[in-house]
Amino acid sequence: MHPNPAINFLQISGLIETQDYKIYNSLGKEVKNGSISNQEKINIQNLTKGIYFLNFANGSTFKFLKE
Question: How many angstroms separate the CA atoms of 60 and 46, rounded?
């Protein structure tokens, strides 16, 4: 996942198949969800600055900073 910190988007690499994802804010509230394939981008322009968690349906979770 890059860039981190991010401003407008997150790009995911290394996915073998399409994955469902959810993004949670630091309080645990879901703020975005969808599906993504390898090398696609997740638009995060509408999120406020802060720490978020990107959680995939397969159980993987990544922390990122939105600037």
Answer: 23
pLDDT tens per residue, the chain (67 residues)? 899 999 999 998 888 899 999 999 999 999 999 999 998 999 999 999 999 999 999 999 999 999 9
Contacts of range 20-25, beta carbons closer than 8 Å, 24 or more positions apart: 20/56, 20/57, 21/54, 21/55, 21/56, 21/57, 22/54, 22/55, 23/47, 23/52, 23/53, 23/54, 23/55, 24/52, 24/53, 24/55, 25/50, 25/51, 25/52
Tokens of 43: 């638009």
